[in-house]
Amino acid sequence: MARLPPFPSPQIGIRDSTPTLTESAA
């Protein structure tokens, strides 16, 4: 898993870091 930033990044940022977070956030 890629390192996740300490702050809620935008869709592009989260998508680039972890696709799982994108699905959960979206």
Description:
Residues 1-26 are annotated as: Disordered. Residues 17-26 have a biased composition (Polar residues). This protein is mostly helical. The chain has two helices and no strands. It has helices spanning 11-17, 19-25. The longest helix is centred in the middle third of the chain and has 7 residues, at 11-17. The N and C termini lie far apart (19 Å). The mean pLDDT is 58.
Tally of helical segments: 2
Biggest sheet character: none
Q: Please trace the helix and strand order, writing H or E for each element.
A: HH
Low-confidence parts, pLDDT < 50 over ≥5 residues? none
On the 0 to 100 scale, the average pLDDT is: 58
Biased composition (Polar residues): 17-26
Region (Disordered): 1-26
In short:
The chain has helices at residues 11-17, 19-25. It has 26 residues and is mostly helical. Residues 17-26 have a biased composition (Polar residues).
Please write out the topology:
Layout lengths: L10 H7 L1 H7 L1
Helix pairs in contact: 1-2
Question: Which features does this protein show?
Answer:
single chain; mainly alpha; 2 helices
